[in-house]
């Protein structure tokens, strides 16, 4: 869910914030957008670097992707130089050494160098998130069994995500098969919850993930992940550009939603 909180959304939002420039006869100036998340206990991957695009033409993630950046993350293991890997979203950066895992309660810095410019950020990872009362493996509508977890060192909020995992991805027959699977995310300030039935209109298998985010990731989620049409630069944690360098720990489980 949070690997890409729809990077195109912030590309469009940034463009919307500047589209009035074109209306006033001022040339559009592209900006750099960076989206980088570190997950405790997992390899470093899926760091995205884009350039915003003028809304006078079509939004093309592949054309917007920056493929020649020098991306470095420094943490307890020292500097880690990331490599570019092509994919359907225009490409991402990742650590070549998959044995290096993100440490809990550790400080990390990010540096992205693009010809003539440098963008930086920093994050302190939360502690490990664990289940206290795991979510039931089967939930029958409309009963909402409560589940609980423990996650320290974050922002004081938690994100709870439900994503449909059946072969249809929860997509209706008329929907584009390339659209992401049906997914919904909400936040809570207490470490327990019950399934939000409005988040799961499709019966079948789901993946439930609970995130303990740092302040950077939580602010980014409230700015972009909730689907707002505009982006407030005060929520950005990238010096010199737009975007996020945040971290979280997470715990997950599979659940079957039935009638």
UniProtKB/TrEMBL annotation:
Keyword annotations: Signal
Signal peptide limits: 1-22
Name by which UniProt lists this protein: DUF4249 domain-containing protein
Source species: Candidatus Kapaibacterium thiocyanatum
């Amino acid at each position: 869910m949070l690997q890409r909180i729809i990077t195109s959304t912030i590309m469009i939002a940034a463009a919307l914030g500047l589209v009035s420039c074109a209306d006033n006869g001022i040339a559009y100036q592209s900006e750099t957008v960076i989206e980088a998340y570190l997950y405790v206990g997992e390899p470093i991957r899926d760091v995205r670097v884009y350039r915003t695009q003028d809304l006078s033409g079509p939004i093309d993630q592949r054309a917007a992707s920056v493929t020649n950046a020098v991306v470095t993350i420094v943490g307890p293991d020292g500097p880690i130089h990331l490599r570019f890997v092509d994919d359907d979203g225009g490409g991402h950066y990742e650590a070549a050494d998959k044995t290096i895992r993100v440490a809990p309660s550790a400080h990390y810095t990010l540096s992205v160098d693009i010809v003539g410019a440098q963008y930086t950020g920093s994050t302190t990872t939360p502690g490990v998130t664990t289940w206290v009362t795991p979510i039931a493996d089967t939930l029958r509508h409309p009963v909402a069994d409560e589940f609980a977890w423990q996650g320290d060192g974050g922002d004081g909020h938690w994100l709870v995500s439900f994503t449909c995992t059946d072969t249809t991805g929860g997509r209706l027959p008329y929907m584009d098969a390339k659209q992401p699977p049906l997914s919904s995310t909400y936040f809570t300030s207490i470490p327990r919850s019950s399934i939000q039935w409005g988040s799961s209109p499709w019966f079948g298998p789901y993946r439930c993930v609970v995130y303990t985010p740092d302040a950077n990731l939580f602010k980014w989620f409230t700015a972009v992940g909730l689907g707002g049409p505009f982006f407030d630069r005060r929520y950005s944690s990238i010096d010199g550009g737009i975007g996020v360098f945040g971290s979280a720990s997470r715990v997950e489980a599979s659940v079957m939603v039935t009638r």
